[in-house]
Amino acid sequence: MPKAQNTLSNIHLHLHMESLSWILLATAIFVLIFKLLNYPHGSTKNLPPGPRPWPLIGNLNLIGPLPHHSLHNLSQTYGKLMYLKFGSFPVVIASSPDMAKLFLKTHDHIFASRPLTAAGKYTSYNYQDILFAPSTDHWKQGRKIYLNEVFSPKRLDSSEYIRVQETHDFLSCLHALSGDPIILKEHVLRTILCQISRTVLGRKYFSESKDKKESLTLEEFQEMLDEFSVLNAVFNLGDWIPWMGFMDLQGYVKRMKALSKRFDRLYEHVFNEHRARMKDEKEGFVARDVVDVLLKLAEDPNLEVKLNIDAVKGLTQDLIVGATDTTTTTIEWAMSELIKQPHLIKKATEELDRVIGKERWLQETDFTNLPFIDLILKETMRLHPPGVLLAPHLALEDCKVDRYDIVKGTIVFVNTWSIGRDSVVWDDVDSFRPERFLGSDIDVKGQHFELLPFSSGRRMCPGYRLGLKMMRSLLGNMLHGFNWKLPENMRCDDIKMEEVYGLSTKRKFPLVAVLEPRLPSHMYHSPSGTTI
Ligand code: HEM
C-alpha cells in the first residue's frame, strides 16, 4: 500500500475511533445523567412500587388538574404506599389508614417537617408562619403560642360572643333574602371572615360596600384569599425542578410576590392601629385580641425564639387563611349533599326541633345533644376533606416504613380523599350516608386514621376545635332556621359535584339555593341591626 494511502486510512481509522469514543462517552454521560436523575430508583434501596419516572420531570406528566384523583388512580395499580418522582424530588403517597398511621403516628417525629416551597417563601414571610415552617424551634414555639393563646378552651369560650353575634347577623341576612336564589358560599365566607377577623385582628378591617372608609373591601379580601388558596396549591415548576426556578415560567412567583404585598399592607395597617392603642394605654393596656397578644410577645426578651414582626405577621395570617376556606368549603359541600337528599334535612330538623324548639337558636352548649349534625359533618369530611392531600410532610432522616426505604428529603402526601373512598374501610363508598357513623367511635380528632380531615400527630391542624365550633353552629342554625330548596328550574340531578383543586378543594360550581324561614319571624331580628 502506498505510504500516502496508508496514512489516509490511518487517519480514517483514527477519526473512526475518535467518533466511536465520542459516541461511547456521550452514551456513558447520558446513562449517568439518567441514573442520577432517577436516583434512587436505580439504587439498592428497597423503594415502594411506582411508575417509572422520566428524566427531568419525573412523574409530573401523570398528575392532572385534580392531583388527588390522579394519585388515587395510580394507587389502584401501585398500591397503598407508592413511590414517584416530582421533578428531581422523591415523593411517596400514602393512600390507606394503616400507611397514614405509619407517617403521622409511628414515625411522626421523622416526617413532621415541610419542604421549602416558593409559596412558603413569598406568601408566608419566608416560612416564618406555622403552616409552611419546617420543623424548627420557631414552629414549635408558634404551635405552643396558638394552643395557649388562641385555641385553649378558655380562649375559645372568651370569643364565643363574637361567633354568636356574627351567626345571628348571618341568619338575619339569609332571612332578608328568603325566596330569592342565593350563592351560599358568599354568605358563609363573609360570616367566617367576620368571626375570624374580629377574634384575631380585633375588628373587621374590611367594608362591605365600596363607599365605606376601610382600606379593603370584602370583595378584595375574598379575592386575596382565593388567590392565596390557588397559589399555595399550584404545581410550581421551580419547586420541583429547582434550576428552572429563576425563569418562573408559569408566572406564579410573580403573583405570589404581588399577593404578599397586598396582605402586608393590611397587616401594617392593623398593627399600627394596635401599637397606637398600646402606646396610649401604657400600663393600663390589656390584650383584647390575638394581634395584641402576639405584639406583646414580640416585645418579650425571655421568649425562647425571638418573635420578629414578620413572624407575628406569619402567625396572624395562618389563622385567617387556615380558618376561612376550609370551613366555608365544608359547609358548602355539606349543604350540597343534603339538598340532594331531603330526607336527611328532615331528620336533622326533627332533631333540632326536639332539642332546641322553635323559639331559640342553637348554641355551642347544645352541640353534645345534636349528634346528627356531627354525623353530617363527619360524612361530609369523609367524601370532601378540604385538604385532600393534607399539607406536604418532609422526611428529616432515612426511615424504614412498612419494609420500604424512605430516604431523607422525601416528600410525603397522605391522600385523605382516597382514604375516604377505600372500600376496605367503607361500604358503599360513593353514597352520602351520615348514618354510617351511628354507633361508631370514629371521630375527626386525629385518633382514627380512616378519617383525617384535620390530620394527626405533630402537624395536626391546631385550629380543629374552632373549625368544628364554627361549622356546627353555622350548619346547625342554617338547617334550624330555613327550609332549603333549589331554584325553580333546577332538579337534584342538576347539582354537579365536580371539584377544583386548591389549598381547600372546593366545588367547581357554587351551590345556589332558595331559603324559606322555618321559625317565627321575630327570631330573625339581628341584635346588631346589620342589613345587607
Ligand atoms: C374545616 C376546618 C379545617 C380543616 C379541615 C383543616 C385542615 C387542616 C389540615 C389538613 C392541615 C395540615 C395538616 C398536616 O400537614 O398534616 C391543617 C393545618 C393547619 N391548620 Fe387547619 N383546618 C381547618 C380549620 C382551621 C382553623 C379554623 C384554623 C385556625 C383558625 C386552622 C389553622 C391551621 C394551621 C395554623 C395549620 C398548620 C399546622 C402546622 O403546620 O403545624 N385550621 N389544617
From TrEMBL:
| Annotated metabolic or biological route of this protein | Alkaloid biosynthesis
Q: Which Gene3D superfamilies match?
A: Cytochrome P450
Under the heading PROSITE patterns, the entry gives:
CYTOCHROME_P450
> Where is this gene product found?
Membrane
Cofactor(s), names only, from the UniProt record? heme
The membrane topology noted for this protein in its Swiss-Prot or TrEMBL record is: Single-pass membrane protein
**Primary location group:** membrane
| Entry's Gene Ontology molecular function annotations | heme binding; iron ion binding; monooxygenase activity; oxidoreductase activity, acting on paired donors, with incorporation or reduction of molecular oxygen
Similarity-based family: Belongs to the cytochrome P450 family.
User: Which protein are we looking at?
Assistant: Flavonoid 3'-monooxygenase-like
Q: Which organism is it from?
A: Lactuca sativa (Garden lettuce)
